[in-house]
Specification:
228 residues, alpha+beta, Elongation Factor Tu (Ef-tu), domain 3, 4-stranded antiparallel β-sheet
Length: 228
């Protein structure tokens, strides 16, 4: 897993570590080189929807050194070590493989991922995806907003999604967005219920919660923030 440096001050930290060449990388570009004698790859990516970078260590024995160098460079910018931010990645429409979707799902099953399929290119599974695109899918991973008290933790298990009393899908991720001031998440629903604005009910451990399907991403659809 990469060491992620994310947030509005991430450019300052990366500039202190690597200089202007790396700090000024364009979105989704990468650089390979050394931090002192520590071999790394730095990419202008992240799991937050914020301005950010990911540092991939190429020598596993140097992990403590890399950590210390990053924390030292970030001290002037009040850097803090935290776990991945579910709130930020949900706002940005970023999916968690193995939790939100699995190898059994195609890009056409997942809202927004269809744009990444380029049939002009050659790739394994091309004809299968052509067939899926032509026939359509029976289910979709969509965004949802949920009522009730702000969620304070991520889901420990999937929650059933109901429509008119019948279980029709499952909520796979959810958290409270402090920027949007509402609970947001992702749910699998039948394709006929995938249109934004569809009213649903989610069965939480504390009882039923009203939910409405929503377009993804919830925030910054043009990725202006991470491109900044």
């Amino acid at each position: 897993s990469p060491l992620q440096v994310q947030g509005p001050k991430s450019k300052d930290v990366i500039r202190a570590l690597f200089g202007d060449e790396v700090a000024d990388l364009r979105y989704y570009r990468c650089w390979e080189g050394d931090l002192g004698s520590i071999p790394v790859i730095v990419s202008r990516t992240g799991w937050t929807g914020e301005v950010g970078y990911e540092i991939y260590l190429r020598d596993g024995s140097r992990g403590s050194e890399l950590w210390d160098r990053v924390m030292e460079a970030g001290e002037a910018h009040q850097i803090r070590a935290i776990a991945p931010s579910d709130q930020r990645r949900l706002e940005a429409g970023i999916f968690n493989y193995g939790n939100d979707m699995t190898v059994e799902d195609t890009p056409f099953h997942i809202s927004g991922m269809e744009r990444l399929v380029e049939f002009e290119a050659e790739f394994i599974g091309k004809e299968t995806l052509r067939r899926v695109a032509a026939e359509g899918v029976d289910r979709k991973l969509v965004g949802v907003t949920l009522t009730g008290e702000p969620f304070r933790m991520w889901l420990e298990d999937f929650w059933d999604v109901r429509r008119e009393g019948q279980v029709v899908g499952r909520l796979v991720s959810a958290s409270h967005s402090f920027r949007l001031k509402e609970n947001i998440g992702y749910a699998w629903v039948p394709i006929e219920l995938a249109e934004p604005g569809t009213e649903l009910e989610v069965l939480s451990p504390d009882g039923p919660v009203a939910a409405i399907t929503a377009a993804l991403p919830f925030l910054d659809p043009n990725k202006d923030i991470p491109k900044g």
